Amino acid sequence: MCRFVLSSLLILLAFHIQAQTVISGKVLDERREPVANVSVSYRKVGSAAMLGFGRTDGHGNFKLMVKANGVDSLQLDFNHMSFAKKSVKIANKTSDQSYTLTAETRQIEEVKVGNIPIFKRKDTINYNVESFTSAQDRVIADIIRKLPGIEMVGEQIHYQGKPIQKYMVNNLDLMEGRYAMINKNLPADAVKNVQIVENDQPIKILDSLVFSDRASLNIELKKFTSTGSGKAGLGAAPFLWDVNLTPMTFGKTFQMLNSFQSNNVGVDVSKDLRAFYTGSGFMHTKSSIDEGPSYIYLRNVPSPGFEERKYLDNKIFLFSTNVLQKLANDLEVKGNVSYYDDTRIRRGFTTTQVFSAEEIIVNSEAVDNRYRIHALDAGALIEKNEKDIYLRNRLQYHKRWNDDLGLVLLNEDIPIEQRRAFTDEALLNAFSVGRFIGKQLVSITSNLEWHRTPQHLHVTPGQFDDLLNAGEPFDRVGQLVDYNGLDWSNSLSFTRRLKRWRLSPTVSLHYNRNSLQTDIEIQDGQQVDILGGDFHNDMLNSQLQLGLDAAAGWESSRWKFNLATPYRLHYFNINQQGVQTLDNTLRSTFNPRASLTYILDSRNEFSANVSGGNQFGGLNNFYNGFIINEYRNINRYDARLLGSRTVNAGAGYNYKNTLKANFAHLRYTYGQGVRDYIYQTRVDSLGRASTVIGDQESQNQNHSLSGGVSRFFSKIKTVVKLNANAGWSASDYMLNEVMARQRIINYGGTLEVINNLSSVVSGEYKTQLGHTVNHLAADRSNTVFYNNHYLTAIVYPKEYHSISLSNSYYHNNIAGQRDQYFMDALYRFTVKRWRLDLELIAQNILNNDNYVQQFASTYELIQSSFELRPRQFLLSTRFRF
Amino acid sequence: MIYGYSFLSLFVYCVILFKETEDRDQCYRAIYKMEYRLDSTVLDNISVSMTELLIYPDESWFRGVQQGRYDSIAHHGLQAMQKFTGEKFPYHIHKNRREGKLTYYDQIRILVSDQYYYEEQIADQQWTVISDTLRIGDMLCQGAELSYGKRKWTAYFNPDIPIHDGPYKFSGLPGLIVQIEDDTKSWKFSLFELNKADLAPFDSNFLFPAIKTKKEKYLKDKRYYLDNLVAIEESAGLLVLSDIEEREAQVKHREKMSKRNNNWIELYP
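The joint structure predicted for all components is written out below.
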């Protein structure tokens, strides 16, 4: 036995010795003199990676113990500063040869690695702006949308699939979430780096206490400066203008942005004033005012997922001023005022199919709407954000007033006029303070928000004859609504760190009070009647919440765990038409949630979260008198609290390799809900719907999977981004007294390629694809499919001249609908000395007059066709300060 | 005769100049960014310093960029500026590729600029090439690993740059080291730029007379000095602390500083 083992070992050893090739030799120069210190490396033929190396000694000899099993031939590379590089291919077997090098002083190319496109330092990923800038880019938004790992969802910036939590310039946050205005007007050439700060805890006092999984974006300027951009353009037809004047100053302790913008070319600049911060998180206060509830609407032509400037018929004037001053004691003071006046016209045609169990009800509407919107916002903020103290108080005022007119032609037969007036006036004060008392952080937050929202809708001729006027036609119906709301929420937290644990018990007090007065009036001839009875609401509801949350966290360098266990007692009071429907009704809710993050290494991160609990709500829908929401919808709900139980879970994975400029993310979420009620809708043959709340349990579930990968190919200056999503959901609904279950299966994705390699031509290509199958009652189903392509090619025929051609191609599955193709063009001449561009813009060159698309809601399939802006030309000058 | 002599002198001068220019053409200056964590207990306290590698045909010198400025001042005779260079790491590393030897020069004491040196063989760095390649900027770099100074290092070198050298003592790979980092991520050198440089021969006179020592002894002496700085300099008469409280504060401060200085590039044996 021993002999057998010994023989086997010897055989194996012999094989091993045979497997190792020894390549030796001598390196000589042209005079046959030995050359010392030559590096001799070997690799598989055709492979980029070397397998081993050696060096010649003082006699020019070298010896390589080659370990390359299964390889027939090898490439030997000889490298020395004073000799030409030499490569030879030899058989992978033991050999001893001499090799001659040719004398040549090697010229080494100078290397500058300093400006690598993406690099990471601690938690900050730096994108070098120059590496991503092409000749056509003007403002920083042009760069940010191209960066791998970053997506623009409308005007909002997402990093690795999640919205950023802060947008700063030189580490100061001037705009408090309204960052689109900086993003679209800050010249790209003023910026050195765009930085993403991962796991950023913006509240310094929480720095070592509370882990953050959110990312912030910082714009690092080349220097403190006054900069900005502007535009002035005129065009036809009709008469067009496009003016933008946005100077900004970014100093060490002072920042200011002023903007005046006006256009009628289809650009909705009011979006620049939208605040994108969510205000969620420990010690965070409410970041913006929510719009007050609207109970009435004009019938509209929906237009999701289509480039707005192709159809928006607008006339907008906007002014905004924003100031930040950092005082000597690190106190930051901010102020902002903005106002806009917007007039919009929307014309189109919709066909709505309502899928009830018995039949499919089809209605068509021609819509011609005019909206007049005014909005005024003013705010003041004071903040001290230091390691030992946090203080923030924000006072904000908002007023929006609309005066809208809507004309509908129902089923090509019945003309209907709607007039809507809506005013929302609101005041918000958000306060937060935190300070250490001993080793304990004591923090208080308080939000106070008040709304006054009067609104009315008048529809001519009168609708709902059976319900409102005993079946007799009448001239006009009016819905009058007066809403007032007050919301006051407060919390007190004690946070303490015990080694790796963080404990944050919180007590909270939340008071909410709303009043709703509504009336329906009908007018026939000169006679106006207020109906009262079932058509009148005089409601006052209030809710007092007392909460206790024993939150905790555990942290190591790799693991982050957070747990919150909020328990709340709710006292509900409802008074309807003088009757106390709910009198100190007590309910409790418990909504625990937990999250876990595992940082495998600097590239890979995993996360998981789970939450669940019960909720009560629906107070604003707590009216038992009818309200006309739209000319064809009338609703009322029986008075009761709406209860629901939910369970949500999710898991995510983030990958980033900043050296190779690769980013990827994958996210799965699951949600399940059980409600103790169901919305019961009745739709008549004209598509008019009335909804009540039924005492029947209903359920819903959903699964969704989304992910994305992006990469920057530095050699060909190309960014590739791929995003995809898939989902499945099911929910109960009741239509025309038939309970059914809706099942939706959807998937979609986008692929984007941005190339800036050539100085003569560059281009961008994007394709979007979406597929949704909606299964409804009685085995009815509908399918929505679209596939859109966008291609922009930019040619630079001469220095300072560029021509860009934008093509968009839309395909959908509407029967009989041809694919739709659009083309825009831009010629630009740059006067470098004056930092100025002269532009000639041609929009909708093919003069398409309308656009058709379809989408599905709960039990409806809506096809909409809306009017587009005609072919237009605009001559403009764009300049940078 | 005088014309003939002048012509010959001019010819010799031109030959010398040409030869010198030719030699200087072969010189390069590589700037490396050095990121380091001297206190291993504080993970996020990373310092950054710029270093330079002066590459001559058969030798190289490595030092801090700041140190280089003060060396120039010293070279031009401003000796007074020599003691406090402002450089946190005032060492110089000389690699003689022809002899396969490297010499490490440093001063142990802060207040006295006596130089010590020890020698090592470049061939002692036993690199193992790994299959990883990494694109840094436009360069395709090959990975290699090395156990050195009680740390495991991973380097990426560019085989297309036939300079078999790198930052600090690292050398011997078949291409310039572009990036090197230890596995605890405490020390990292990244190439910032490589330029052709018109370098004069390195004047190392100011390093001499340097006292020869052994590496282990040098490391032990340096640690001993940092732990007992106040007492050593007091006994040498270079530090006078008459106030007892001030002395105690100084001792405590130095002890604290010494404790924080616990994560050297080569770990204490």
